[in-house]
């Protein structure tokens, strides 16, 4: 386990009777990461989150939180975690202050420090002006803020958020997303969602789960799903002349187009344009062909739903 890793899940598996909900999930969350767990309904996101936070025992496998085993020392390990389940665990009959004070007590924050912890969590979640309101009278968006505030009240290293925007209206969704992005500056975050733009808006890394299995893990950056360069020329060169830096393979595609497969992070466009001008190839078209996260998601998650049963 490297020193930057906050959560490390090893071989996490959960069965419900004969059905596999999550199979052999391995995951590492490092300091400063905002990781999105993406998957269609029933993929196993909630089951994974519950196991990662010690709220559901895995059938096999273990989770280390800052190197502490959830199985062996659950209380110690959970000190470093804040968790917002799919249904926010708020008490509608309490005020925001009463509820957060109660949560602070549950996390072992001493009476003297409680007022400060509550004030900090309210400030960070934009709740200060709602302090004495009954939670049951707040909008869903504000109730979700209260849910977020209880997840960070003990200043954990990691916050785990299960579908935090479900059931909110578009304005509330925007507010909660920007709040999560803000919280991500001081905490590492694991967030589950079945909404692609949400993951793209908030996360730096995405893992796609389908039928209980991890099928994709990538950083969300300019190179996400990059396939390569597509180029077309009036006076086509030989394929061997297109071996620029980072080009791994040159294929001749439909309509005389060349497809250049690229190494991770490579972008030889400037080199290619220079060569085309100098050697008179007559460049007609040049583009980076990328697959969007949506295309990757659809490709990886549509199809055989019976995998789970077969596993
Ligand atoms: N308590 C349970 N008993 C039996 N099966 C369960 C239980 N909880 C979940 N499952 C099954 O395990 C699988 C994964 O469920 P899970 O709730 O983890 O998925 P999810 O990705 O969070 O879905 P959603 O987005 O719909 O919440 C599903 O097939 C679900 O029906």
From TrEMBL:
<dbReference type="Pfam" id="PF00005">
    <property type="entry name" value="ABC_tran"/>
</dbReference>
<dbReference type="GO" id="GO:0005524">
    <property type="term" value="F:ATP binding"/>
</dbReference>
<dbReference type="InterPro" id="IPR027417">
    <property type="entry name" value="P-loop_NTPase"/>
</dbReference>
<keyword id="KW-0547">Nucleotide-binding</keyword>
<dbReference type="InterPro" id="IPR003593">
    <property type="entry name" value="AAA+_ATPase"/>
</dbReference>
<dbReference type="InterPro" id="IPR003439">
    <property type="entry name" value="ABC_transporter-like_ATP-bd"/>
</dbReference>
<feature type="domain" description="ABC transporter">
    <location>
        <begin position="7"/>
        <end position="236"/>
    </location>
</feature>
<keyword id="KW-0813">Transport</keyword>
<keyword id="KW-0067">ATP-binding</keyword>
<protein>
    <submittedName>
        <fullName>ABC-2 type transport system ATP-binding protein</fullName>
    </submittedName>
</protein>
<comment type="similarity">
    <text>Belongs to the ABC transporter superfamily.</text>
</comment>
<dbReference type="GO" id="GO:0016887">
    <property type="term" value="F:ATP hydrolysis activity"/>
</dbReference>
């Amino acid at each position: 386990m490297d020193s930057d890793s906050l959560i490390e899940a090893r071989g996490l598996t959960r069965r419900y009777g004969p059905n596999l909900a999550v199979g052999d999930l391995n995951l590492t969350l490092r300091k400063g990461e905002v990781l999105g767990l993406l998957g269609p309904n029933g993929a196993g996101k909630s089951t994974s989150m519950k196991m990662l936070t010690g709220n559901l025992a895995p059938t096999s496998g273990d989770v280390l939180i800052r190197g502490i085993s959830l199985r062996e020392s659950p209380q110690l390990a959970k000190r470093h975690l804040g968790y917002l389940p799919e249904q926010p665990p708020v008490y509608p009959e309490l005020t925001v202050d009463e509820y957060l004070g109660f949560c602070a007590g549950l996390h072992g924050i001493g009476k003297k420090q409680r007022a400060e912890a509550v004030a900090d969590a309210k400030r960070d979640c934009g709740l200060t002006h709602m302090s004495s309101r009954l939670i049951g009278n707040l909008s869903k968006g504000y109730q979700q803020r209260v849910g977020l505030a209880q997840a960070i009240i003990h200043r954990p290293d990691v916050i785990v958020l299960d579908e935090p925007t479900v059931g909110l209206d578009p304005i509330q969704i925007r507010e909660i997303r920007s709040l999560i992005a803000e919280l991500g500056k001081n905490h590492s975050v694991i967030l589950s969602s079945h909404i692609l733009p949400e993951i793209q808006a908030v996360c730096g890394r995405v893992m796609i789960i389908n039928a209980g299995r991890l099928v994709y893990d990538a950083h969300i950056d300019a190179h996400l799903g990059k396939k390569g360069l597509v180029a077309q020329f009036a006076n086509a060169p030989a394929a061997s002349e297109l071996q620029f830096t980072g080009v791994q393979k040159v294929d001749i595609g439909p309509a005389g187009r060349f497809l250049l497969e690229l190494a991770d992070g490579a972008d030889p466009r400037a080199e290619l344009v220079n060569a085309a001008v100098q050697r008179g190839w007559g460049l007609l078209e040049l583009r980076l062909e990328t697959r969007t996260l949506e295309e990757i998601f659809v490709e990886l998650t549509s199809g055989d739903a019976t995998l789970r049963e077969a596993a």
